[in-house]
Design goal:
Blueprint: E1 3-4, E2 50-57, E3 66-73, E4 78-87, E5 91-96, E6 102-107, E7 114-121, E8 126-134, E9 140-145, E10 151-156, E11 161-166, E12 178-181, E13 198-203, E14 208-213, E15 218-225, E16 230-231, E17 237-238, E18 241-242, E19 252-255, E20 262-267, E21 273-278, E22 283-288, E23 298-304, E24 315-321, E25 327-333, E26 337-343, E27 350-357, E28 363-368, E29 374-379, E30 384-390, E31 397-405, E32 409-416
Antiparallel strand pairs: 1-31, 2-3, 2-32, 3-4, 5-6, 6-7, 7-8, 9-10, 10-11, 11-12, 13-14, 14-15, 15-16, 15-19, 17-18, 20-21, 21-22, 22-23, 24-25, 25-26, 26-27, 28-29, 29-30, 30-31
């Protein structure tokens, strides 16, 4: 029932953490060769004010039925439940297609994992299953699209594999065009880094796909052919970043500190900096992107997502840059908070500003609405979504008072309504 109610060395910079009660320098012509343009803009706010919102959940050992839908109004911040959009097992990640008429879900089920394609009924908020395909790995946890919307990318966590599926004219998924297993030396944590674990995948608009691998302490970088949908790595990794030496078996990569466990990545506006969330050490590592005269990524900072003195169990989960490019947020599971950082626009470095309680337990994911006015935090273990208003001047978060119940929420995707 739903009811409203990357580290290259030790020379890193640490910033003092303030706790409140509420718990490259290079040409822009060169930059787009490497990173996708981050979504959102302070100068061009979202034109729509009304959205459908789809929530992915875990159904195993919970009361959830699958994917749930809501109405969300960015003019008022009102979140209203519609109901079950589709009954489907363990849709741990949902992604709305850029065309607005399709939704895809990662069904996390071990060796039986699948990816599901749905047609969206924008009036009712309901989803109709088109087809399912094996995810070609175990426990898919992240989905994304290429810039044309013709391909779906899948990160399979337990198997450490990534796959590419073509999206057919009717929205169904076709037979895969690529399947790659991440390669490299594993991290020092024998329990969690015993093998590759692909946790995040995003393509750029220039034939590059990025993969955060928790098991390898790396963000891997694979060339992608948008004409064939194939991943054809042609470069060999080096100890300091990436190289252009031909090699058909591996891709480029960016290296994190041992035991960091990279989970998700946020990319700044104009693609100047990347921010890698370390799940296992509760950190954000900042990298300056390659410049026109330098092929290497450079680590400039490593900062904690936790307040000074906290010593309990914690795993970070999600990282997002505000559409205005001035603030970065990360969620803590254990401390059960949202960490707020201010971004230095010249250097990309972070200054810790605040820690705000998510109003529940285990915030596995959060999302900022397209207007940039609100942040919605999904608390997996307390079965609710808490809505926060974002102060446009400071990035500060204030609960609006809205707490919507939904079983085991773990992902949110927005769809603008006509």
């Amino acid at each position: 029932m739903i009811r409203a109610a990357f580290l290259f060395g030790p020379a890193l910079h640490y910033f003092p953490m303030k706790i409140t009660r509420r718990i490259f320098a290079f040409s822009l012509l060169f930059v787009p060769l490497f990173f996708p343009i981050s979504s959102g803009s302070a100068d061009k706010p979202a034109a729509n004010s009304k959205y459908l919102l789809f929530v992915g959940t875990y159904t195993t050992k919970t009361n959830s039925k699958g994917i749930y839908s809501f109405h969300f109004d960015t003019a008022t911040g009102q979140l209203s439940a519609i109901g079950v959009a589709a009954e489907t097992p363990d849709p741990s990640w949902v992604a709305v297609h850029p065309g607005g008429k399709l939704l895809y879900a990662a069904n996390e089920a071990g060796k039986a994992s699948t990816v599901s394609a749905f047609a969206v009924d924008a009036k009712s908020g309901k989803l109709t299953l088109l087809n399912q395909m094996p995810s070609l790995g175990e426990d898919p946890c992240y989905l994304s699209f290429d810039k044309t919307g013709k391909y779906l990318f899948v990160a399979n966590y337990s198997s450490g594999t990534i796959a590419v599926f073509p999206i057919l004219a009717d929205g169904r998924l076709g037979e895969h065009t690529a399947l790659v297993k991440d390669q490299g030396a594993t991290g020092p944590n024998k329990e969690r880094q015993e093998a590759p674990h692909a946790h995040w995948i995003e393509p750029s608009g220039n034939g590059i796909v990025f993969v955060a691998d928790l098991g390898l302490d790396r963000v891997l970088i694979y060339p992608f052919d948008p004409k064939t949908g194939s991943l054809t790595p042609k470069n060999v990794p080096t100890s300091t970043g990436w190289s252009k030496t031909p090699n058909a078996k591996r891709g480029w990569f960016v290296t994190l500190g041992p035991g960091t466990g990279p989970r998700h990545v946020a990319i700044s506006r104009y693609n100047r900096f990347i921010y890698v969330l370390g799940e296992m050490q509760s950190t954000v590592t900042v990298f300056r992107s390659p410049g026109s005269d330098d092929d290497n990524f450079h680590s400039t900072q490593r900062i904690s997502t936790l307040p000074k003195g906290f010593s309990g169990r914690n795993d970070t989960a999600e990282i997002t840059i505000h559409p205005n490019g001035k603030f970065l947020y990360a969620s803590n599971r254990g401390h059960d908070s949202l960490a707020l950082f201010r971004i230095d626009q010249a250097t990309g470095k972070l200054t810790s500003e605040d820690f705000v309680s998510t109003g529940g337990k285990e915030p596995r994911h959060f999302a900022i609405d397209p207007s940039g006015k609100y942040l919605l935090a999904e608390n997996q273990f307390s079965n609710n979504i808490v809505v926060f208003w974002i102060d446009p001047a400071t990035g500060g978060l204030t609960p609006t008072g809205q707490v919507v119940e939904v079983p085991s929420p773990v992902n949110i995707a927005f769809l603008p309504k006509d």
